[in-house]
Amino acid sequence: MARPAFATAVPPGLVIYADGCCEPNPGIGGWACVVYRDGVEVYSESGGDREATNQRMELTAALQGLVWVIDNDIREPVRLFSDSSYTVDACNKWRHGWRRNGWRRGGPKNRVIVNLDLWKALDGALTLHPVQLEWCKGHAGIIGNKRADELSLVGRGTVVDRSPTPLDLIREQLDYSARGCL
């Protein structure tokens, strides 16, 4: 089935963009989530891990967005966008069967789910606050996805030899503002 086309602007309502990165994969990773209310950025968070995979960082980004929703007692509908088909499909389709199967894949191999700690946490968060997870194309000029991608690199930078300085972060924020993204 073909994926829908996406506008580059942030949709109205409460919207979260989540993104992760890892270089090399596996290797040093970063994640970020960015929350928008009616197109205005209201919150962002990022972090990193020295021993990560791209999938683990994508899942962490989505989970941190959901944690923000729960911690802030959000009662309205929430849309969470990710450019990771794995994250979106597993959250929307596969996790229910995994839970029923004792967190194992079906089929003859009956393997344990990779990143089980994150999947259990995501399942719990999505049970507390159902969120509409949607796929978006990465590196396609979608403002929220681009912002999450940039911040995931900042998150990765916090665990490499040279962390961004406060001046680096200020320059990045000014550049972001100058592009009219705030």
Structural class computed from helices and strand pairing: alpha/beta
CATH class, named Alpha Beta
Number of helices: 5
Enumerate the spans where pLDDT stays under 50 for 5 or more consecutive residues: none
CATH architecture: 2-Layer Sandwich
**Largest sheet, order of strands side by side?**
3-2-1-4-5
- Strand coverage percent: 15-25%
The CATH topology assignment is Nucleotidyltransferase, domain 5
Amino-to-carboxy terminus distance: 34 Å
Rg over CA atoms = 16 Å
The main sheet comes to: 5 strands, mixed
Q: Which percent range fits the helix content? A: 40-55%
The tally of beta strands, per DSSP, is 5
The CATH superfamily appears as Ribonuclease H-like superfamily/Ribonuclease H
Q: What is the overall silhouette?
A: globular
Output the helix-strand order: EEEHEHHEHH
* Average pLDDT score: 90
Question: How many domain modules?
Answer: 1
How would you describe this protein?
The chain is of the alpha/beta class and 182 residues long. 41% of the residues lie in helices and 24% in strands. Helix 1 packs parallel to helix 3 and helix 2 packs across helix 3. The radius of gyration is 16 Å and the shape is globular.
Task: Summarize, please.
The protein has 182 residues and is an alpha/beta fold. 41% of the residues lie in helices and 24% in strands.
Task: Please write out the topology.
Elements: E1 14-23, E2 27-37, E3 40-52, H1 54-71, E4 78-82, H2 85-100, H3 116-128, E5 132-135, H4 143-157, H5 166-178
Parallel strand pairs: 1-4, 4-5
Antiparallel strand pairs: 1-2, 2-3
Helix pairs in contact: 1-3, 2-3
